[in-house]
């Protein structure tokens, strides 16, 4: 049965998912159709609908969802909870972009709602779908290189209220919930826990250079993991417009150093006593060539397409999608603890693991 999809939110991230879904559908990789598009700007919704030959373009999310079996929530963060709750109440499968909500209270409520409704629900923590990140996680967790000891993680990009994002809402704490830590590095908190084990406590300090109240552009955190490893994160929003979104990750295990200079393309570099070698990582080699998109978009779209494909496959097969709202909730608990630590001048804060 063809899964009918509504896209709610036709901004930058909505466009990424729109292109990925179009490529999956036209490449006959999924049995789905985008039937509705919704945005506060009707012209943008019309543009999206035309790209998919969809009949419905609207400014009313309820109208779009009424046509669908599954919805992609791609709106600014503060609107996610109401849209997810409406979708779950209507029995729709939900793919919600990250971060789930501005506050931990909202994220807990959303997680409870989708669980009670029993609907398939996945969060756009797409770094798990990036082949180099997945390869790093496998290499660290399989144990051949010894126990993980420490990690150093740097994440930076230009302040995302400009450039390709073409929006201003990330400079408004009431909409975004915070700055670089929750909006950008919620991915990083999830990756660190995925690679090194759940985070048990955090110390954090934040700074504000751009001057947007409540929206930090520097966050420096130290984490302790259940594995015994310690990690550090430096998350920065700057004004170097030639650096869109770049990450460097180093992980020391007992018998190896592993590092990534390019989380999207790899490779994973591995240094051991016997020498240094690279582990190449290719995203979804069995299907990526069938993705019906221009070649210049293929690599950049791959993790989003992989996440969208996995979600649609989960909906079709009845298996629980991953990463789930529960996985995202764990990352939000760490972010909340980090903000509380920063508010107290960097004192250690224990993270609730349940």
Strand order of the largest sheet: 14-13-12-11-7-10-9-8-15
Task: State the major sheet.
Answer: 9 strands, mixed
Element order, helices and strands?
EHEHEHEHEHEHEHHHEEEEEEEHHE
- DSSP strand content: 25-35%
Whole-angstrom Rg: 20 Å
Structural class: alpha/beta
* Counted beta strands: 15
Number of helices: 11
The rounded distance between the terminal residues' Cα atoms is 37 Å
Shape: globular
Low-confidence residue ranges: none
Helix content: 25-40%
Output mean pLDDT. 96
Task: Produce the secondary structure layout.
Blueprint: E1 3-8, H1 12-26, E2 32-38, H2 42-51, E3 56-58, H3 61-65, E4 70-73, H4 80-89, E5 93-96, H5 104-117, E6 121-123, H6 131-141, E7 148-158, H7 173-176, H8 180-184, H9 186-196, E8 199-207, E9 218-225, E10 230-238, E11 246-253, E12 256-260, E13 268-272, E14 275-279, H10 295-317, H11 325-343, E15 349-350
Parallel strand pairs: 1-2, 1-4, 2-3, 4-5, 5-6, 7-10
Antiparallel strand pairs: 7-11, 8-9, 8-15, 9-10, 11-12, 12-13, 13-14
């Amino acid at each position: 049965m063809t899964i009918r999809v509504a896209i709610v939110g036709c901004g930058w991230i909505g466009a990424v998912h729109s292109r990925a879904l179009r490529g999956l559908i036209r490449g006959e990789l999924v049995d789905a159709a985008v039937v509705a598009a919704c945005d506060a700007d009707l012209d943008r919704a019309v543009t999206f609908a035309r790209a998919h030959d969809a009949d419905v373009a609207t400014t009313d999310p309820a109208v779009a969802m009424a046509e669908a079996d599954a919805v992609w929530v791609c709106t600014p963060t503060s609107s996610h909870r109401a849209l997810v709750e409406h979708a779950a109440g209507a029995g729709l499968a939900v793919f919600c972009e990250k971060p789930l909500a501005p506050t931990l209270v909202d994220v807990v409520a959303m997680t409870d709602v989708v669980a009670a409704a029993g609907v398939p629900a996945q969060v756009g923590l797409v770094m798990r779908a990036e082949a180099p990140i997945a390869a790093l996680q496998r290499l660290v967790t399989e144990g051949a290189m010894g126990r993980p000891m420490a990690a150093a993680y740097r994440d930076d990009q230009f302040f995302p209220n400009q450039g390709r994002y073409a929006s201003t809402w990330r400079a408004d704490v009431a909409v975004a919930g915070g700055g670089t830590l929750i909006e950008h590095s919620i991915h990083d908190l999830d990756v660190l826990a995925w690679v090194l084990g759940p985070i048990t406590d955090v110390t954090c300090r934040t700074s504000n250079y751009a001057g947007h109240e409540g929206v930090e552009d520097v966050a420096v955190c130290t984490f302790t993991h259940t594995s015994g490893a310690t990690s550090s994160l430096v998350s920065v929003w700057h004004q170097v417009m030639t650096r869109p979104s770049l990450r460097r990750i180093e992980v020391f295990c007992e018998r190896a150093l592993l590092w990534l200079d390019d989380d999207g393309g790899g490779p994973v570099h591995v240094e051991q006593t016997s020498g240094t070698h690279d582990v190449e990582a290719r995203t979804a080699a069995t299907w990526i060539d069938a993705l019906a998109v221009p070649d210049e978009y293929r690599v950049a779209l791959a993790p989003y397409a992989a996440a969208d494909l996995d979600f649609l496959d989960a909906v079709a097969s009845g298996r629980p999608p991953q990463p789930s709202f529960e996985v995202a909730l764990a990352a939000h608990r760490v972010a909340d603890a980090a903000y509380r630590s920063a508010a107290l001048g960097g004192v250690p804060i224990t993270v609730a693991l349940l």
